[in-house]
Amino acid sequence: MTVTATESGAPESGAPARTAPSEAGSPFAPALLAERARALADHPEEWVHRVRLDPQGRWYERVHQDADHEIWLISWLPGQSTGFHDHGGSAGAFAVALGTLEEHRVHDRREVGAGQVRSFGPDHVHDVRNTSDAPAVSVHVYSPPLSTMRRYDLDAGGELVRLAAESADDW
Ligand SMILES: [Fe+2]
After folding, report:
1. CA of 92 to the centre of ligand 1 (A)
2. Where is this region: Disordered (predicted)?
3. CA of 170 to the centre of ligand 1 (A)
4. pTM for this entry
């Protein structure tokens, strides 16, 4: 299993360690978040009993939270997606544990398969989708813990238009 890409910074080698805040307000650098996400995705026996599949929308559950970071499990049935969103200034990473997801950015789209991880800095906007014909499960790590998320739409010119903001109280 390999780290497929990072949005900011090079993957760090060696043992995961707390890093100096290189991103505004993010106690953990994206590469470390990727490491955390991948480590948990590699051990489904620790969490698979929690996972549910919800035809009404993505199922998610926070499985860890402290002052520095939080970890969520998300399940995706075929066709379920997040829509374009940011992470309110948090850095993050997600690792696909089962199935395949697609990460869409304004001018870019990439498949993230089981065993792969994506990480990103605090300015990242994306739309994550299950465009496959099978369920998917992913592990998401954010640092600092998410406090707000803003939603976006694409206008006719393909540019992002900011929509509503959601706060942690909404989820
Ligand atoms: Fe996201």
Report:
1. 8
2. 1-27
3. 15
4. 0.83
